[in-house]
């Protein structure tokens, strides 16, 4: 039986790899196929009477690993220069405006629907307001450089902001000035911890001579993330800063203090580390979405009770994006439709305390919203002309 399970698992992952490779040509995000692959696998396993343990407990673990690795992978591909700082600022502002506007409007909708607690409204609305970088970043790899980097920045910021705000709401029963001040102190603290940890990790990356050198680095990144979470610190900031540090070693080589870290060797090792991170991210991300598809119930997908709400949420988020794009004078195509919900939405939903749950926000609503948002993104990417010349930073897109 164990050998049979291993055969099934390897076969599923190999199919996932073929799906990921072919998505560059079909222009269909691989995550949709992963969902379908997971659902089909469940039907085959049930038909074959293969007994598997309860896999639902694995979903949050894979989700956390996937979130850390996706943010790290995205940051490793971002080289910051004078032009990128402007792009970074625009994407950060866009991410904040779209998240806050949608969050406020959706909270009001839940209030109208019967939720009497202001804090409950905010907690339940937030998961729908965060873009999934685990879906967005791999899906835009064939877009022009500026568009791709904008989506990478926006989705990464959205993940980080969503987790920051969600943790703040869970830790504080009331939103007061002292609570905000304390949380701001946590952000300063994690920034300091990030720089110290990054220097130590950089030294390790450049000094380790053992044939196994990258696994300890990844484990240490996860360890710092997990410890920061235990102390309720905004740990994703550390992951983002660490990735940006490794991606921009060349820009730091002119500083005298940095030369002590042997930057030429560090740059070579960071390139190898990037390759390992890409491989591991693919594996964890694929397993998460396949498992999510495996755990999906047909009744949740087809629920007519949740469908009006899921459609309403999608229309609301498209309206908010259209409005902010218009105000910031950014092109709608294809940014309007690149707003998938996914890994982070599921993670935040799973972490909503029972006392803060709202009946409308259930498994069915989450599944329908995720699927609809991914399908809409697929349509947007399919229609977008991928052969369009790369836009310059002086073009109308960023004006």
Q: How large is the radius of gyration?
A: 21 Å
CATH fold name, please?
Answer: Na+/H+ antiporter like fold
Beta-strand residue fraction: under 5%
**CATH secondary-structure class:** Mainly Alpha
Number of domains: 1
Q: Which parts are unreliable, with pLDDT below 50 for 5 consecutive residues or more? A: 389-397
| Main structural class | mainly alpha
Distance between the termini: 60 Å
Mean pLDDT figure: 82
Main β sheet profile: none
CATH architecture: Up-down Bundle
Number of E strands: 0
Can you put this structure into words, describing what you see?
The protein has one domain: Na+/H+ antiporter like fold (Up-down Bundle), CATH 1.20.1530. Helix content is 73%, strand content 0%. The chain contains 17 helices and no strands. The chain has helices at residues 2-26, 30-47, 58-76, 82-112, 118-125, 133-139, 145-171, 177-207, 214-230, 236-247, 249-252, 256-259, 263-295, 298-301, 307-327, 343-350, 363-383. It is globular, with a radius of gyration of 21 Å. The chain starts with a helix and ends in a 16-residue tail after the last helix.
Q: Brief overview, please?
A:
With 399 residues, the chain is mainly alpha-helical. It contains 17 helices and no strands.
How would you summarize the topology of this molecule?
Blueprint (H helix, E strand, L loop, with lengths): L1 H25 L3 H18 L10 H19 L5 H31 L5 H8 L7 H7 L5 H27 L5 H31 L6 H17 L5 H12 L1 H4 L3 H4 L3 H33 L2 H4 L5 H21 L15 H8 L12 H21 L16
Helix pairs in contact: 1-2, 2-13, 3-7, 3-10, 3-13, 3-16, 4-5, 4-7, 4-15, 8-9, 8-10, 8-13, 15-17
């Amino acid at each position: 039986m164990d050998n049979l399970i291993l055969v099934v698992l390897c076969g599923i992952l190999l199919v996932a790899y073929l799906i990921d490779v072919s998505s560059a040509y079909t222009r269909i995000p691989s995550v949709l196929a992963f969902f379908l692959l997971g659902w089909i696998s469940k039907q085959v396993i049930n038909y074959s009477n293969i007994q598997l343990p309860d896999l639902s407990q694995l979903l949050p673990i894979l989700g956390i690993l996937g979130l850390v690795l996706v943010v790290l992978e995205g940051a490793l591909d971002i080289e910051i220069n004078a032009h990128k700082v402007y792009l970074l600022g625009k994407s950060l502002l866009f991410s904040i405006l779209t998240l806050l506007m949608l969050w406020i409007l959706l909270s009001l909708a839940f209030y109208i629907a019967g939720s009497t607690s202001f804090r409950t409204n905010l907690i339940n609305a937030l998961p729908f307001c965060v873009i999934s970088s685990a879906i967005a970043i791999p899906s835009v790899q064939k877009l022009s450089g500026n568009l791709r980097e904008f989506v990478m920045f926006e989705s990464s910021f959205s993940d980080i902001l969503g987790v920051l705000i969600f943790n703040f709401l869970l830790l504080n029963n009331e939103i007061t000035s002292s609570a905000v001040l304390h949380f701001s102190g946590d952000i300063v603290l994690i920034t300091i911890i990030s720089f110290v940890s990054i220097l130590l990790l950089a030294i390790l990356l450049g000094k380790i001579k053992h044939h196994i050198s990258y696994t300890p680095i990844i484990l240490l990144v996860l360890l710092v993330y997990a410890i920061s979470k235990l102390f309720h610190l905004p740990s994703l900031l550390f992951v983002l800063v660490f990735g940006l540090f490794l991606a921009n070693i060349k820009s730091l080589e002119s500083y005298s203090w940095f030369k002590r870290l042997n930057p030429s060797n560090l740059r070579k090792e960071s390139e190898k580390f990037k390759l390992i991170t890409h491989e591991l991210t693919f594996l964890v991300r694929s397993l998460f979405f396949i498992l999510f598809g495996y755990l999906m119930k047909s009744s949740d997908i087809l629920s007519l009770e949740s469908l009006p709400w899921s459609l309403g949420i999608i229309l609301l988020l498209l309206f908010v994006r259209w409005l902010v794009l218009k105000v910031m004078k950014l092109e709608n195509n294809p940014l309007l439709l690149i707003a998938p919900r996914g890994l982070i939405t599921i993670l935040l939903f799973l972490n909503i305390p029972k006392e803060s749950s709202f009946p409308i926000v259930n498994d069915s609503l989450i599944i329908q919203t995720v699927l609809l948002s991914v399908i809409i993104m697929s349509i947007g990417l399919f229609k977008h002309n991928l052969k369009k010349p790369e836009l310059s930073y002086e073009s109308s897109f960023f004006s």
